[in-house]
Amino acid sequence: MSLLRIKKPSTRKGKKALLDREPKTIENAKKTLIMEGRKCSNDIRLALKDLNQLKKPNVKVLKKNYDISPFEDASTIERISQKSDSHLFIFGSSSKKRPNNLVFGRMYDEQILDMIELGITQFKSLNDFKNEKIGSCVKPLIIFNGYKWKLTEELRRLKSLIFDMFQKETIDTIRLQGVEHVLSFTITEDLTILMRSYKIHLKKSGLRTPRIELTEIGPSMDLVIRRTKIGSDDLYKLSLKQPAILKVAKRKNVTRDELGNVHGRVHIDKQNISALQTRKMKGLRKTVAEKKAKRKLKKKQSDDIDNGMEVDSADE
């Protein structure tokens, strides 16, 4: 039995590449792999090109055509995804049985978790809209319209997959002037998914908040669901598990302000002020009369104890 030899990297670039692939508490932005099948129509090529523009810079485009069927044998996609460190993939193909076909999928533990096949029934590319576009690295707002996204588990997984596909790095705060792009996904009564892309214009409104106007910039797609292959519920829950270090434990009476400072509130019992040790000053000393009264009280309490009477501690 021969053991598999693992060659250690000898260059700084190779060490950095392996270090980047190691598990992290906060993972990197997910990279998308874009592939073409053996046969592709012009609409599929334009659609993959436009999706590449929306996904930049977290995208890797393969120029080679692959004669594979992801739903029958996905080993090639799993191998290429592992080699390129890509967690998402888009596979485009076209055939007589399934024209203008797009397969969206995502990986977990170097295996395919979810995979959904969509057919394009209507398509307009970015070049069909003759207007001003946005930058390639702008983080979009993602909107899902329609109540049917929650009807079945396949639709819920598709919504989650689309969100994973088009989101970029996670941010904590946003600037209003930096919100420029909107991706809208609307599901109709016949389960057709309408994908639209808009540019946001901020206009004067006379108020503190500006007036919003949207201009469609493309791409525009009408998608129908063809085939689905989703992972089991147990595997899906396992893929959503987060490290314990990221879960902030709730601490009672502890808050954190906007600057990150920790503020705590402490509750204590009512203090007996008469028992406090204060500074010994001449003016705070007891008088001779107070001392005599205290001695008489103690003598009275001791006599009562000798006579078998109960002494009230409140008299002290």
Automatic annotation (TrEMBL):
Belongs to the RPF2 family. InterPro entries: Brix (IPR007109), Rpf2 (IPR039770). Keywords: Nucleus. It holds the Pfam family Brix. Transmembrane segments: none annotated. Residues 279-316 are annotated as: Disordered. Residues 30-234 form the Brix domain. This is Ribosome production factor 2 homolog. It comes from Corethrella appendiculata. GO terms for biological process: maturation of LSU-rRNA from tricistronic rRNA transcript (SSU-rRNA, 5.8S rRNA, LSU-rRNA); ribosomal large subunit assembly. It is found in: Nucleus, Nucleolus. PROSITE patterns: BRIX.
